[in-house]
Amino acid sequence: MGSDEAALDEARRDQREPATPPEDRDDWTTDSSSQAASSRPAPPEPDWEDRWRRAVADLDNARKRCARELDRVRADERARVASRWLSVLDNLELALSHARADPATIVSGVQAVRDEAVAVLNALGYPRRDESIYVGLPFDPAKHEVVTVVDDPDAAPGTVVDVLRPGYGDGEAQLRPAAVAVARQQG
Asked: Strands across the sheet with 178-183, in order?
């Protein structure tokens, strides 16, 4: 009866535990269909290193292409901006050629050139901010650059009392903040 019980225990164990292949054997199979599959040649393993090298080369080519495109866009933009300033230079040369003329005409010519330059900056997306609107307002570091601090008994401390140089642009597209004089705190 001992050998029957041992056989029964072995049969129960076989039902509970699935068969696992020995780790050191390559030819272990469980049925005839897997034997047929193992007789077929295995598909070639992908060459991961080759794929990796191709991906790196593609990335490098894309990086170079983007750099060339960026250089081209920068050159186009420089040419576009420079061409807008050509008329300003032409008018300055015209004003200088009339330097021997009446001083009043030279002043009006220089003002016209300045107005043209302001129009060019406006067309490029950097409008000139009106200086007069800042006087009396509190200093704003996003719009102003303090150049000097002055004693002004009529102005509240930290307010703009004078605009020394205008600012160009608005918000995120700011070319230059306005240079201002700010009232000093008393005390």
From this structure: 144-150, 178-183, 160-165
| pLDDT tier, 34 (very low <50, low <70, confident <90, very high otherwise) | low
CATH of 131-183, one of 3.40.50.720, 3.40.50.300, 2.30.22.10, 3.40.640.10: 2.30.22.10
Model pLDDT for residues 93-118, shown as the tens digit of each residue: 877 777 777 777 778 888 888 898 88
Task: List the one residue out of 145, 162, 146, 166 whose CA is nearest residue 154.
Answer: 162
Q: Tokens for 52?
A: 């990796």
For the record, the structure tokens of 125 come out as: 């997306």
Please, are residues 160 and 181 in contact by the beta-carbon 8 Å criterion?
yes
pTM: 0.54
pLDDT of 35 reads 54
Task: List CB contacts of 87: < 8 A, sequence separation 6 or more.
Answer: 116, 120
